[in-house]
TrEMBL record:
Highest taxon of source: Bacteria
Name of the protein: Lipoprotein
């Protein structure tokens, strides 16, 4: 009987150690495009720990507010999460990228790792291209855009003009 108890204790010990092993960091990916007036035109937020992708489109005046608000569930594969985590660990650069036109912001993207809080508003923009960030952003965008639920929900983005 003692032998079985010892085996059970040992099994629970290894099981708890395995549960604590973290395969990949969670992240929040937030991107926004702006009107010329500096008001957000549309934004997308993906939370990897929840698997929720949210898209918001705003009117160009402050009276009408949100025109579209769509939430879908997209789960990345463990391999995609591991790849993103490896890129993040190897690059060690600031996780933001911004584009300006005539000194007015037209696009901002951020990735916040290992946090429940999105740091989009607290990250300052610089007017320089962050190639390290773009590598991670492209991987995230590819994973989102290849999802069948994304293609079905945002069908208008796939129409050829």
């Amino acid at each position: 009987m003692k032998k079985y108890n010892f085996i059970l204790i040992l099994l629970f010990f290894f099981q708890s150690c395995k549960a604590q092993k973290k395969e990949a960091s969670n992240f929040i990916y937030h991107t926004a495009d702006y009107y010329e007036s500096g008001i957000i035109r549309e934004e997308s937020i993906y939370n990897s720990s929840l698997g929720i992708y949210e898209y918001k489109q705003y009117s160009d005046d402050s009276l009408n507010g949100i025109v579209k608000n769509i939430k879908i569930y997209i789960r990345f594969t463990q391999q995609d999460l591991n790849d993103i985590n490896q890129l993040h660990k190897s690059l060690k650069s600031e996780m933001s990228d911004c584009y300006f036109q005539n000194n007015i912001i037209v696009h901002k993207s951020t990735i916040t790792f290992d946090s429940l809080k999105d740091n989009f508003d607290s990250i300052n923009c610089a007017n320089n291209e962050n190639s390290d960030f773009i590598k991670i952003e492209n991987k995230i965008e590819a994973s989102i855009n290849s999802s069948s639920i994304y293609k079905t929900t945002f069908y208008w983005k796939f129409y050829k003009k």
